[in-house]
Amino acid sequence: MQQRPIRGSDIAERAASIVSKTDLASDPEVxxxxxxxxLTFLQTQLxxxxxxxxxDIKMVDIVSKSxxxxxxxxxxxxxxxxxxxxxxxxVDRARPEST
Length: 99
Prior knowledge:
- The protein is mainly alpha-helical and 99 residues long.
- It has helices at residues 8-19, 28-44, 46-53, 56-68, 72-78, 85-94.
- The chain contains 6 helices and no strands.
């Protein structure tokens, strides 16, 4: 069976589908993308966002919603991120099993 060649427009459509998070719950590639987005946020923006907002309750809510969008593997990866004790506590309180 011969496969048809992949066109640039097919790639662009697929990329748009992933970035728009279409079918997050059922598309493994979209889920990997979402996991990567949240992991990047936790690694590079969590401290800045927490310092800017200065609202612990809002930060727990933001992180909780972010973790809820992640796969189990993504959440396990998040546990390996080196955070300050206060940020680690914030993430711990945001975990779904903490609510």
